[in-house]
């Protein structure tokens, strides 16, 4: 091989080497920036771990804002307008719409009522059938109202079989304690207080007797869920980290939660006795359709009850409005 040929080969090798280096060191495409997440909720301490996650920076890689909107109608409007892209609600509140499908897709269960909501009955009421034609009070859109509807449904009854009184929950409790109602849907602490005042009365049933019925989920905008599932995953991860922090740093966590809801630490601890925060493992179980109690079964049951009582005229399949794809991302 002559000298010129050798030089030519070396030049080619050098050029290819430099080109390969430039290609290999070319900056990788940046990860798409996630949109800001704005989660709306009513003022309810069951959502308190979200405030721990926010305070402690557990929503890593996503900007999360927590917003209080006290009317579910306003929450729905904000969801449809794009002012928010997530919100917290129970199955019944989420599905209590008419003519328009509920907005959002559920991907995370955050809390469950375990006795905080129930139905109080007079001494002479020994079965739900005994309430037929009698005055019964409750507030639509609140968990005790759903508990009442559930109990009626189990016996083949609806609100039409009662002399139903649409009353604010506190008024329903006062009216029951005064003997003006045969039964009332009430939440704690008014539930126990009303029964204590009225001689012979009792808590006929509470959410503790109906596992899975009264749960709060977070619902995400469906386009957000489709285009940015990693944002939903980061919200769920932040929530689960908050639960771990609450378990290991009780004093600091409860102070954060108490401050967020304007109550004392003792009041927050008292509230927690009737509510459970749902762990990662419990979420996995509840999003498993083979579980005896699962979100899909409860979702469909609640919609059926609401439809029978005229609270909705549209029931979509649970599989179309809930997703297990996010919880499956966690080992």
Give the tally of structural domains.
Answer: 2
Output the number of helix runs: 14
CATH topology of the largest domain: D-Maltodextrin-Binding Protein, domain 2
Strand line-up in the sheet with most strands = 2-1-3-10-4-11
What would you note in describing this structure?
With 331 residues, this protein is of the alpha/beta class. The protein folds into two domains: 37-112 and 213-329, D-Maltodextrin-Binding Protein, domain 2, CATH 3.40.190.10; 117-209, Periplasmic binding protein-like II (D-Maltodextrin-Binding Protein, domain 2, 3-Layer(aba) Sandwich), CATH 3.40.190. The chain is 44% helix and 17% strand. The chain contains 14 helices and eleven strands. The chain has helices spanning 3-24, 48-55, 72-81, 91-95, 143-154, 169-177, 190-197, 222-227, 229-248, 250-261, 265-272, 280-286, 295-308, 318-321; strands at 37-41, 64-68, 86-90, 105-113, 117-121, 135-138, 163-166, 183-187, 202-206, 215-220, 275-277. The strands form two sheets. Strands 2-1-3-10-4-11 form a six-stranded mixed beta sheet, sandwiched between helices. Strand 1, helix 2 (48-55) and strand 2 (64-68) form a beta-alpha-beta unit. Helix 2 crosses helix 10 (250-261), helix 6 (169-177) packs parallel to helix 7 and helix 10 (250-261) packs across helix 11. The longest helix is centred in the first third of the chain and has 22 residues, at 3-24. The chain starts with a helix and ends in a 10-residue tail after the last helix. The model is unreliable at 1-30 (pLDDT under 50).
